[in-house]
Amino acid sequence: MHHTAAIFASHHLKLSFATYASFADLADDPAMMDALIEQYQLVFEESEVWGEAYSRDDVLAKLRDELAGEASLRICHDRSGNVLGFCWAQLLGAAEVMRAVDSIKFYRSIALPDLRDRIEALLAGTRVLYVHDLGIASSARGRIPLTQLIYPVLADLAGRTGNGRVLFWSMPDTLVSVLARRGRFAECPMPNGMSFHLGEFRAHHADGVVGLRWMAMKGWSATIHCDQDGPCER
């Protein structure tokens, strides 16, 4: 079952958000699913960093796989139903994270033969809330706070799974890397230029608004040892 709520007006643009807990939930809203697929294709093909071309079937396959099990998807849209932004995450172990990373076309051009070993060392047998994708339409950049997309997804998943560890990866000078710095995520750089960002939080509520309280980030940073020519270790 999905939930929709109008949140606020930003730069004269009324923003609404829809949240889905599974692919079946999304498939029950076919117009929104079609709009999401179209925007996903545009965001990553037009990007100066990623430059990826995905067919409709490619995106459908990703959504089916990445909204399975414990997952959460959040979509920002306007009053006409046009998708302006999206984010989804899923509870995964190291092997599943590796599979997700390997599904990204951009990664295949910079693939590391030992990346799975590096991820396993970083997670040390734990599971994480892995952020698969975060994107904003070019026409809406600067008008949609990234926190309105990613925080509710993570809070939703953490509430359902009891797991507050978060992991995602990015390239330098992307919006996601900026978010990681502001959120004080521990960073694990890789020799191919990509960086994994690891953090932990607890969801809390203040004045009816869900927020994230980041926990012990200083400790995380101190206990993750990163050598770009060797594996990251906790």
The name of the CATH superfamily reads Gcn5-related N-acetyltransferase (GNAT)
Overall domain count: 1
Strand runs, count: 9
Q: What general form does the structure show? A: globular
* Overall average pLDDT: 83
**CATH-defined architecture:** 3-Layer(aba) Sandwich
Percentage of residues in DSSP E strands? 25-35%
Q: In the CATH scheme, what's the topology name?
A: Aminopeptidase
What would you report as the Rg, rounded to the nearest angstrom? 17 Å
| N-to-C order of helices and strands | EEHHHEEHHHEHEHEEEH
State the gist of this model.
This protein has helices at 23-27, 30-46, 56-66, 94-102, 105-108, 115-123, 146-161, 175-182, 217-223, and strands at residues 3-10, 13-20, 71-77, 83-92, 128-136, 165-170, 186-189, 195-206, 209-214. By secondary structure, it is of the alpha+beta class.
